[in-house]
Design a protein that fits this description.
- It is built from eight helices and five strands; from the N terminus they run βββαααβαβαααα.
- 35% of the residues are buried.
- The chain has a five-stranded mixed sheet.
- The two termini are 27 Å apart.
- Helix content is 31%, strand content 18%.
- The chain is globular and about 45 Å long.
- With 223 residues, it is an alpha/beta fold.
Length: 223
């Protein structure tokens, strides 16, 4: 069994007419070895947006991704094709991300670009599970990745809000707590009517329509 820990970064837009687009894909492949789980391989690709190819100042500031990075990158269909080829669909795997937004945006992009969804299965939101592990009395607060790393006594390695770095750090938490995590089997079409959410939203904000720039203080919290 392979455990694919992936992370996506999106454009940030003040204009509600434009949906955020994936601009960065990072993933690590976690496998079982003689001494336990370990990171066996990594994947990374920037993605050139198709609707608004020029990055906003806010996107560059938030992610650190530059226009030069994007101009040399493939469009989403080619980037995801490379990702799936790296993933390898012949062996069983779980797709795990920190929070629900990445899965929702991935499915949404695949549908928009007419990319087959068959490879998106066994998806798991490990943020929810790990937040519950550190809760008490049946109550929990949603942890950021940085908070989870701190609770696991693991130092953050790399730059926050860069897809591969976030995926690597998420994998470290996943490996550390693996014996306490329960993974589920599913398929992308299991939630056919489930809409995608705006990125960088808090649990309270997800319950209502809002602009992600309504509160700039919250924008620069890690996810």
């Amino acid at each position: 069994m392979q455990y694919i820990i992936y992370d996506l970064e999106f454009t940030v837009s003040r204009n509600a007419r434009y949906s955020s687009e994936i601009i960065d894909i990072g993933a690590v492949k976690v496998v079982q070895g003689d001494d336990g789980l370990y990171v066996a391989d990594t994947f990374h690709s920037f993605v050139r947006p198709s609707n608004r190819p020029v990055l906003s100042t806010d996107t560059v500031q938030f992610t650190g991704i530059t226009q030069r990075d994007i101009d040399a990158a493939p469009l989403f269909p080619e980037a995801v094709k490379q990702f799936v080829a790296w993933l390898g669909t012949d062996s069983p795997y779980y797709l795990c991300a920190w929070g629900p937004d990445d899965r929702q945006k991935l499915v949404s992009h695949c549908r928009t670009h007419h990319v087959d969804l068959g490879w998106i299965h066994n998806t798991n939101d490990i943020q929810k599970q790990i937040s519950r592990l550190f809760g008490s009395g049946g109550k929990y607060r949603q942890l950021s990745l940085s908070q989870a790393l701190e609770l696991c006594h693991i130092d953050f390695d790399g730059q926050q809000h860069r897809a591969l770095d976030d995926a690597i750090n998420t994998a470290q938490v996943f490996i550390h707590l693996f014996d306490r995590i329960s993974l589920v089997n599913n398929a992308a079409d299991d939630e056919e009517n489930r809409g995608s959410k705006l990125v960088y939203s808090s649990p309270e904000e997800e319950q209502e329509h809002y602009s992600p720039f309504g509160n700039l203080a919250n924008l620069f919290k890690d996810h």
